C-alpha cells in the first residue's frame, strides 16, 4: 500500500548506540511503513513519522487515524513524511535535519506510525510553532510476539531541562528552544530534531526486548553524547545542554 503523503524527507538518519559494527541478519522483508509485519531481534523495522497540523491527523475532527489511511488526505494538507528503519531492540537516535525543513511550516505536529490492518500510531506530538521548537523526544515501540501493538512518546516532565535557561518548559512536558535561537531563524543552535527510540515487549519468538528498560534506567538524554556517528553539531548541542 502506498503512503498517501506527497513529499518524503530524505534527511532522516538512524544512528544506533552499538559501539562497533555487529553483523546481524535482517529477515524482515517489509519496507513500507503501511504494511503489517512481525519481527525478531536483529531485524530492521520500517516505520514513518508524518509532520502536519494537529487537526490533519483526525478524521471528521474526532477520530485519530493512521497516516496510512487515505481518509485523512494528508497529502493535500501539505504533510511531510520521514521513513526510518532502525534495528529491532537497538537503542537508536533518529534525526531529522531541519536546515531545509521547518516543522512549523507544515503544521508543527508529528505522529509516528506503522502497519495497516494492525496499524499503530502515536498521539500527535507538538514539535514547533513560530515561537518554540521541541528538539528532543523519546519514542517507545511496544511489540507483542513481534507484532507492533503501540507507539508512544515518553515524556519526562521537563526534568532534563529544568534550570537551563536555554530552554522553556511547555505544558509541563516539553523542553523547547526559542526558534530565534535556531540556525534556520538566524540563531546559533542546530535545531535538528532528535528522537531517541527504544523497544519494549517481545519478538516473534517471545524473546524479551531490553532497550526500553536500558533507556529508562539511564538519564534519558545523557545518551546523546554516546552516539558515535552523529554529526558533531548535534552532539555538541546536546552535550552542552544536558
Ligand atoms: C462526522 O461527525 C458528525 C458529527 O459528530 C456525524 O454526524 C457524522 O455522522 C460523522 N461522519 C462520519 C462519516 O463519521
Ligand atoms: C506556540 O506554542 C506555545 C505552547 O503551546 C504557546 O504558548 C504559544 O502561544 C504558541 N505560539 C504561537 C505563535 O502560536
Ligand atoms: C544539517 O544539514 C546542514 C546542511 O547540509 C549541515 O550543515 C548540518 O551539519 C546538518 N546537521 C545535522 C545534525 O546533521
Question: Summarize this, please?
Answer:
The protein is mainly beta. 7% of the residues lie in helices and 30% in strands.
Task: Describe the overall structure.
The structure is a single chain. With about 240 residues, the protein is mainly beta. The protein has one domain. The chain is about 5% helix and about 30% strand. The chain has helices spanning about 210-215, 230-240, and strands at about 5-10, 10-15, 45-50, 60, 65, 80-85, 90-95, 110-115, 120, 125, 130-135, 135-145, 145-155, 170, 175-180, 195-200. The strands form 4 sheets. Strands 1, 3, 6, 8, 9 and 10 form a 6-stranded mixed β-sheet that branches. Strands 2-7-16-12-13 form a 5-stranded mixed β-sheet. The longest helix has 10 residues, at about 230-240. One 2-acetamido-2-deoxy-beta-D-glucopyranose binds next to helix 2. One 2-acetamido-2-deoxy-beta-D-glucopyranose binds near residues 129, 131, 132 and 170.
Task: Name some characteristics of this structure.
mainly beta, single chain, binds 2-acetamido-2-deoxy-beta-D-glucopyranose, 7% helix, 242 residues, 2 helices, 6-stranded mixed sheet, disordered C terminus
Question: Helical stretch count?
Answer: 2
Secondary-structure content class:
mainly beta
Cofactors, ions, other ligands: 2-acetamido-2-deoxy-beta-D-glucopyranose
Which percent bin holds the helix content?
Answer: under 10%
Question: Low-confidence parts lasting 5 or more residues at pLDDT below 50?
Answer: 1-11, 235-242
The first-to-last residue Cα distance is 41 Å
Number of domains: 1
- What is the tally of beta strands? 16
Mean pLDDT: 81
As a whole number of angstroms, the C-alpha radius of gyration is: 17 Å
Name the overall outline.
globular
* Estimated share of beta-strand residues: 25-35%
- Helix-strand sequence: EEEEEEEEEEEEEEEEHH
Largest sheet: 6 strands, mixed
Amino acid at each position: 500500500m502506498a503512503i498517501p503523503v506527497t513529499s518524503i524527507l530524505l534527511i532522516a538518519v538512524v544512528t544506533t548506540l552499538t559501539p562497533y559494527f555487529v553483523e546481524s541478519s535482517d529477515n524482515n522483508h517489509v519496507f513500507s511503513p503501511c504494511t503489517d509485519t512481525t519481527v525478531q531481534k536483529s531485524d530492521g523495522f520500517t516505520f514513518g513519522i508524518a509532520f502536519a497540523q494537529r487537526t490533519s491527523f483526525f478524521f471528521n475532527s474526532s477520530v485519530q487515524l493512521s497516516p496510512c489511511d487515505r481518509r485523512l488526505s494528508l497529502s493535500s494538507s501539505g504533510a511531510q513524511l520521514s521513513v526510518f528503519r532502525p534495528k529491532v531492540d537497538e537503542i537508536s537516535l533518529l534525526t531529522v535535519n531541519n536546515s531545509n525543513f521547518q516543522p512549523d511550516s507544515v503544521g508543527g505536529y508529528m505522529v509516528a506510525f506503522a502497519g495497516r490492518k494492525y496499524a499503530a500510531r502515536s498521539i500527535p506530538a507538538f514539535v514547533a510553532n513560530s515561537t518554540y521548537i521541541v528538539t528532543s523526544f523519546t519514542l517507545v515501540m511496544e511489540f507483542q510476539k513481534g507484532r507492533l501493538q503501540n507507539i508512544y512518546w515518553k515524556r519526562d516532565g521537563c526534568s532534563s531541562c529544568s534550570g537551563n535557561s536555554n530552554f522553556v518548559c511547555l505544558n509541563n512536558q516539553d523542553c523547547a528552544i526559542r526558534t530565534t535561537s535556531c540556525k534556520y531563524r538566524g540563531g546559533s543552535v542546530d535545531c535538528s530534531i532528535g528522537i531517541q527510540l527504544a523497544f519494549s515487549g517481545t519478538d516473534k519468538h517471545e524473546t524479551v526486548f531490553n532497550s526500553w528498560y536500558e533507556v529508562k534506567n539511564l538519564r534519558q538524554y545523557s545518551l546523546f553524547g554516546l552516539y558515535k556517528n552523529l554529526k558533531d553539531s548535534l552532539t555538541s548541542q546536546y552535550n552542552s545542554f544536558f
